[in-house]
Known about the structure:
339 residues, TIM Barrel, two-stranded antiparallel sheet, 10 helices, 12 strands, globular
Amino acid sequence: MKYAQLGSTGIFVSRVSLGTMTFGGKDIEPWDRMGALDQKAAGELVGIALDGGVNLFDTADVYAAGESEEILGKALGRRRDDIVLATKACAPMGRGANDQGLSRLHLTRALDASLRRLGTDHIDLFQLHGFDPYTPLEETLGALDDAVRQGKIRYIGASNFTAWQLMKALGVSDLRGLSRFASLQVYYSLVGRDLEDEILPAVRDQGLGLLVWGPLAAGFLTGKYTRQGATDEDGRRLKGSLPPVDAERGHDAVDALRAVAERHGTDIAATALAWVTAQPGVSSAVVGAKRPEQLRANLAAADVELTAEDLAELAAASAPAPTYPAWITPDPAGRVPRG
């Protein structure tokens, strides 16, 4: 496993990290379609990741309504302090008017609940899972800064922010002397490169770490989805289209991946992950898995060294997908996200 510095912090994270959206949720819609792994199955994946050198584990309170955090905490056990533990808050966790968002009230409750479920006294990286247009950033960042000073959080980060939202938050932190985002977690893949226009330059300029979710575009970049159909009847993309992919251009990108993978004697997924981690500014690619063989194959991406020719070939074959993050972030009126 290789490691990279998380932005301007002093910590290093594995270039491939484990996301836990597949943990739990057997009887909870839509998490029952994500994997719904029980404690035993999830524990096996955590063990494989730890043995493979993974030291960043990413979850969120909303994953399986908290079950993902509970399962991860138990699976880590005594090895909790060997890793960088990351979780998120913002999404609805109940039916109450204040059971979501980035208010001081909700964040304080959400943090304490995550600590309890994870069985730990601190979160290494606590991330805002989205932008809240109703709560002033001063309130949100002030609450996070208090939690940092209390020792409940080591670093703070954001996820699914636009460039202007990110820069405004950093400006508020700098102006008021509050804890600053250490990282931004975003969707990025060979078939989803929208963030290269504004978000990625902002992250690089501000010295933040970039954590990538969906680096395989929910399985599209594994090669099991072809122009003739899917080769895996249990594939996630057969149950939903998030993140969206321009299929025709996407298949062109997969064709290029297949050619590069053959030259390196590896598989398409590992090549797609290697492309992501080779991009300047990227600290780690967060991968999810339902089966041990999937995870082992993804971890192999850390050993794939793409040449300048490989990168140029893949860049030429891929094309922008629908604008990100507009399709993932609901608007203030509560309408369904575009895409």
